[in-house]
Amino acid sequence: MQISRIKLKRLDYYLLFGTLAVVSLSLMLLFSVRSQGLGDVPYLFNRQLLYAVIGLFLMAGAALMSPRVHFGLAYVIYAICCAILLGVIGWGSLAKGAVRWIDVGLFTFQPSEPAKIGLILALARLLTDKKMDLNQPAHVLRAIILTGFPLMLVMAQPDLGTSIIFGSVFLFMIVAAGIPLGYLLILVSPLLAALTSFHALAFLLFMILMVWLAWRMKLYLGILIFLILGNLAISAATPYFWGHLKPYQQMRLVSFMNPEADPKGSGYQVIQSKVAVGSGGLIGKGLGQGSQTQLKFLPEQHTDFIFSMLGEELGLAGATAALLLYGLILVRGFRVAILAGGKYTALVCTGLCAMLLMHIFINIGMALGMMPVTGLPLPFLSYGGSFLWTSMIAVGIILGAHLRRGDYTP
Amino acid sequence: MAEYNNHIRFRLLSILAVLMLLALWVRLVELQVVHTSEYQKKSEANAIRVVEELPGRGVIVDRRGRVIVENRPSYSLTVIPSEVRKSRPTLQELAIILNRPEETILEELPARSAEVYRPYKLGRDIDFATLAALKARSLDLVGVNHQSEPKRYYPLSVAPHALGYIGEISEREKKRFPNRKTGDIVGKQGVERRYEDLLAGQKGYRYQLVNAYGQIIDELIEEYTPPQSSGKLYLTLDLELQYLAELLLEGRRGALVAMDPRDGGILALASTPKFDPEVFAGVLRASDWQALQNDPGVPLLNRATQSGYPPASTFKMMVLTAGIEEGIVTPDYRAHCSGGYYLGRVFHCFKREGHGTIDPLQSIESSCDVFYYQLGHRLGAERLGKYMHEFGFGEKTGIDIENEITGIAPDKKFFDKRFGVGKWSPALVLNVSIGQGEVLATPLQLARYCGILATSGLKATPHLFWKMHQKDTGLIEYQPQLQRINIKPSTFAYVREGMRRVVEGSGGTGRRFKDPRWQLAGKTGTAQNPHGDDHSLFIGFAPVEDPIIAVACVVENGGFGSMVAAPIAMTVIKRYLEVELRPDSLSQMPDSLYQKLVAARLAPASKAPAVKPPKSAAPQQLAADKPKPVNPEPPADANLAD
């Protein structure tokens, strides 16, 4: 550790400010939650304050750690995370029909959270490897396997939201690492094939577009045929796998398409969330005055649906402020990726920003009725320790990269 | 490690991130700016629960202010399902109080999450013993409470057909009462339905702030609007007369209508067999409804307005009026009755040996049929039809209760339509002339017809409503709807003289009812009934000089008019005259009698002697108070014995 050599003027104050501002906003919102039969103690606020203080230490620790350290430990961290994920499947406590939590006495712990960072570090290290040539399909396959293993494990929990995060982080990072766009098409097209398989016309349009793009890129004929046949097979198999989804996942996806269909079931949350946000108006109903959230019409209002609470109580003004702060964090994060000297650091920053971005986009999109209900928390805002720490460690790593920009980093 | 430079891709990813946040912001603006008012409404509806408080329904009283229908509190036992499920002692206590097994209680309780936190009506209209037990143990019972809701109460159980009944609104009725909703109680028949808007009162509303589980967080006190109970609705009915009429008709199928011919106010409107309105007062049990529907006596039918009967000889005054007005009959007019009249076949007089040569007044007094065969034949269907309509036959009277029928007034058009023009025999008119054949009239039509005769042509629309005082609208009073029909008063005077002779004359069919106190007038009728015994009819009015009451009475299968319908109608008329015209008898009568009637009805059945006990003090006490109308037997007094 070379603490003495770090120059404080290299601290990214904007990124730090943005992070602390959102954490404060979270504490403010949680303080306004009416006590829930727990006396006058603002239970949620106290807990979250404790989590935030621990988080600050974790963030500072991550920032002071040289990228060399986690570069060296990347595969080890990855392996530990995967081992814990494996363990969760056999040994864990039940929550909402999904095994995601480990009870460590004082609090429950969600191992898929550190696994996100573990994957990002390992993937960045793999992609930085000198022997790695993304022009060769076999090399791309190695990256796919590295991502696919933990992805399958969280899928098995089952945790659809985290799987999507793993997938998105992978895509962002290989794009940043310079993968040929043709390969990207091959990687992304199966997903689109699965989505469009429910609608004949949409599928036809997608196939035509894909073949045209592939032809424009002058792909080998063999790859083209592989693309077409592969996507046909995927679209044929999707309905089968759909049948293997847990009923609550199906319901969430279906109710996302038409929330009014089952207002008492999973569509209920989305409708109530929209009502909460919509009724907030320009300046909101005031802290602690949100009838939707405070009167429990909105379930999980302090965890997954905290943005609805923000929208209801502080209105467009408060919600816009939160979006601007997120924008600040992400833009600064990508800026660090560009300024960072080494490819590894740049890719790590990209992966961490992608993780935060996808959480923000999916969670807020869900609260606004644009996305299915996946149970992904909102960075820095949602109540709960696991993801707050993950997000703060992520920011810490980015801050650390910025502190050492210009230095010789991997 | 080499310097890594792929800035374009990083910048593009950065821009993608900003665009994604921008997309969220656009959606945010859509919800919070464009559609905000819509979501605000939904949000308010979510959190505020409106609790209705029922007003007292209007009390219905008779013309003297005596209560016919009032309200008494009825209690429902409510439980919070989630609480009862949690507390086993509560469930055990409930099972004991309600005297039913615990399992059935658990089964009945709703299980849906939206309902388990809301009061559920476990028992409706519980009795006082249950209520007392509930209150005594209220501290041990978690989530158990009671709600009071007003229920109709009928102290004397009279006039069910005129009053109608109440019940939960049906889908069809929502069109008629657009500002009511499912679960509301509305009038279903009679006065209750017709004056629903006056009787209903204004609901009160409590606004409670509730959470998603339906638990009450707070109440918006300043928004509370208390219920406004309705006032007293005065009917023109005379409770005592109504009670008397129903008593006299008891055990028979028939109807009696008494009205004030001067303004159309209905004094009594009885139809038997009747139903117990109490059955409809609370929750209508399916078995009770089935029993009422399947009763061969059709108790739900209002025979006074919904049954048509051949008016028989009571029709003759109308035919005579037509004869005089058309210039056929003069006081010098004579007809010879030899016991029959030939038109294609022989039409018999009820008196086979014949009445001999008679004048028009004698034709009424002795009710000669041949006289009217002749007269009807000469008048013809067209002219006869014109007078039928003048007297209100074949059309609704316009009384203020619904589902009245028109009856049938067979004029020329009617016969032409039924048999074809020129294809029917004038012999049909002969039957109509004596009130038989195609003609059908309701007892209400007959009472009004009698009233027109009594008042020399004042055709009043019959009505039950008299007045009501309400806070916001002030006094609402019925304005009599009167119409004078185009017939000479001298004609009426002549016809009335015939009716007077029915009672006062030595050969009158109603001479038994002669009363030294007043001059009475009337006409008996005996309607031939192809399905069974003859129907017994009577119409009458009094006093002859200045009539204040007109009555029509029909008793199905009663036999001769003079034997059944006439005594009933005459008893009602005389009782009314006693009360109205002899104030000296008033002091001891109406109210004290009313008290006794109520007391008699409220007393347990075992204490009310059905058969006169030989030596009991109570009935003698009653007899000393001259309780003539209470006697259910048709009057066995001097007048009848004549």
What does this structure look like?
- The complex is a heterodimer of chains A (410) and B (642).
- Chain A is mainly alpha-helical.
- Chain A has one domain.
- Chain A has helices at 13-32, 43-64, 67-90, 112-128, 137-156, 160-176, 181-196, 200-216, 221-244, 247-257, 266-280, 291-294, 306-339, 343-367, 385-403; strands spanning 93-95, 98-103, 108-109.
- With 642 residues, chain B is of the alpha+beta class.
- Chain B folds into 2 domains: 50-158 and 201-235, Penicillin-binding protein 2a (Domain 2); 242-280 and 295-459 and 479-586, Beta-lactamase (3-Layer(aba) Sandwich), CATH 3.40.710.10.
- Chain B is elongated.
- The chains are: A mainly alpha (410), B alpha+beta (642).
- At the A-B interface, helix 6, helix 11, helix 13 and helix 14 of A face helix 1 and helix 2 of B.
Give me the secondary-structure topology.
The complex is a heterodimer of chains A (410) and B (642).
Chain A: H1 13-32, H2 43-64, H3 67-90, E1 93-95, E2 98-103, E3 108-109, H4 112-128, H5 137-156, H6 160-176, H7 181-196, H8 200-216, H9 221-244, H10 247-257, H11 266-280, H12 291-294, H13 306-339, H14 343-367, H15 385-403
Antiparallel strand pairs in A: 1-2, 2-3
Chain B: H1 7-34, H2 36-47, E1 48-53, E2 59-61, E3 67-79, H3 81-86, H4 88-98, H5 102-108, E4 120-126, H6 128-136, E5 144-153, H7 160-163, E6 166-168, H8 173-176, E7 185-187, H9 190-194, H10 196-199, E8 204-210, E9 216-219, E10 232-235, H11 239-249, E11 254-259, E12 266-272, H12 286-294, H13 303-306, H14 316-325, E13 335-337, E14 340-343, E15 345-348, E16 356-358, H15 360-365, H16 369-390, H17 412-419, H18 427-433, H19 443-454, E17 458-460, E18 465-470, E19 474-477, E20 482-484, H20 489-504, E21 521-527, E22 535-542, E23 549-555, H21 565-581, H22 583-586, H23 590-602, H24 617-624, H25 638-641
Parallel strand pairs in B: 2-10
Antiparallel strand pairs in B: 1-8, 2-3, 3-4, 3-5, 6-7, 8-9, 10-18, 11-12, 11-23, 13-16, 14-15, 17-20, 18-19, 21-22, 22-23
